[in-house]
């Protein structure tokens, strides 16, 4: 991030000196955002993140912003910030440049999530920020093939969250776990995390996030490399999905690793499309 906001950068100078910076998308309140739910339900599967964050927020908070292109009666597109993570959605087309301006101006953005078509429109406008462009298979689970392993599976609380976060940060690909967001969702009960310990050492985890009536995203599926191929991840994901389904919540999951994909399909996940994440410097 420092490269493009440095004083030596022409782009950084433009940001710091342009006092007429204009954001065309407007920031709306949580109460206004709730009026967007019918629009977002047009493609509910691809809006689980946005719907969950809107439904689970009852007052305006400093860690969440919703920006609207159009108006609540005729929305063209939505951009949501949760801490330093952004999610974007449009059914047809929207003001992509205005959305990019908001992300750039935030100055601490870590990623942008969305449908492949939408992210591909955003990518040229965010080129200076992008570190990785990741494409994932997107799956849904409606009928679980439960894997009863017999392992003791524990649930994360605010008291033991620290050791699970420490474990995740030690696993390749999970080093950027946002501790504030992780703990906030556990506190708000909009997410849950299960884990397995061997000899008082965390060896495997799986979490949900953005839980709502629309569904929940399964994330943070990780196992210590010395404890793989013993069914730990399969056991935890099965337990997590079983609990969600029993509560009437549909689980969704993303993957780009064929081994992970095989595991998820064994317990009943089915592909419904693709998802993209732009990860920033």
Features:
alpha+beta; 281 residues; Aminopeptidase; 2 domains
Largest sheet: 12 strands, mixed
Radius of gyration: 19 Å
Number of beta-strand segments = 12
Low-confidence stretches: 1-21
Mean pLDDT: 91
Number of helices: 11
Briefly note the structural class of the backbone.
alpha+beta
Terminus-to-terminus distance: 5 Å
Helix proportion range: 25-40%
CATH C-level of the largest domain: Alpha Beta
- Return the CATH topology of the largest domain: Aminopeptidase
Give the overall silhouette: globular
Q: How many domains, as an integer?
A: 2
Strand % is 25-35%
Explained architecture:
The protein is an alpha+beta fold. The chain folds into two domains: 2-128, Aminopeptidase (3-Layer(aba) Sandwich); 140-276, Aminopeptidase (3-Layer(aba) Sandwich), CATH 3.40.630. It is 32% helix and 31% strand. The chain has eleven helices and twelve strands. It has helices spanning 2-5, 10-17, 30-33, 37-40, 48-55, 96-106, 116-122, 161-169, 179-188, 232-246, 258-266; strands at 26-28, 64-71, 74-82, 85-89, 111-114, 130-140, 154-155, 192-198, 201-212, 215-223, 251-255, 270-280. The chain is globular, with a radius of gyration of 19 Å. The termini are close together. Residues 1-21 have low confidence and may be disordered.
At a glance:
With 281 residues, the protein is of the alpha+beta class. The chain has helices at 2-5, 10-17, 30-33, 37-40, 48-55, 96-106, 116-122, 161-169, 179-188, 232-246, 258-266; strands spanning 26-28, 64-71, 74-82, 85-89, 111-114, 130-140, 154-155, 192-198, 201-212, 215-223, 251-255, 270-280.
């Amino acid at each position: 991030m420092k490269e493009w906001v440095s004083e030596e950068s022409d782009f950084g100078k433009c940001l710091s000196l342009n006092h007429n910076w204009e954001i065309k998308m407007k920031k709306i309140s949580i109460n206004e955002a709730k009026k967007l739910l019918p629009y977002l339900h047009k493609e509910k599967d691809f809006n689980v993140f946005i719907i969950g964050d809107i439904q689970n927020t009852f007052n305006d908070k400093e860690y969440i912003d919703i920006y609207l292109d159009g108006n609540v009666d005729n929305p063209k597109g939505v951009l949501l910030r949760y801490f330093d993570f952004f999610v974007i959605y449009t059914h047809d087309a929207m003001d992509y440049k205005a959305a990019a301006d908001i992300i750039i101006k935030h100055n601490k953005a870590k990623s942008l999530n969305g449908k492949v078509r939408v992210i591909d429109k955003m990518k040229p406008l965010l080129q200076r920020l992008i570190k990785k462009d990741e494409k994932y298979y997107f799956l849904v689970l409606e009928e679980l093939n439960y894997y009863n392993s017999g392992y003791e599976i524990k649930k994360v609380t605010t008291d033991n969250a620290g050791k699970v976060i420490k474990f995740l940060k030690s696993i390749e690909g999970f080093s950027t776990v946002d501790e504030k967001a992780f703990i906030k969702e556990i506190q708000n009960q909009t997410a849950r995390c299960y884990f397995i310990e061997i000899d008082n050492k965390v060896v495997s985890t799986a979490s949900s996030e953005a839980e709502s009536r629309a569904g929940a995203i399964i994330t943070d599926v990780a196992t210590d490399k010395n404890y793989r191929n013993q069914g730990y991840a399969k056991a935890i994901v099965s337990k997590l999905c079983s609990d969600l389904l029993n509560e009437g919540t549909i689980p969704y999951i993303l993957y780009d690793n064929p081994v992970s994909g095989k595991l998820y399909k064994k317990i009943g996940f089915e592909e419904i499309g693709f998802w993209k994440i732009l990860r920033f410097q």
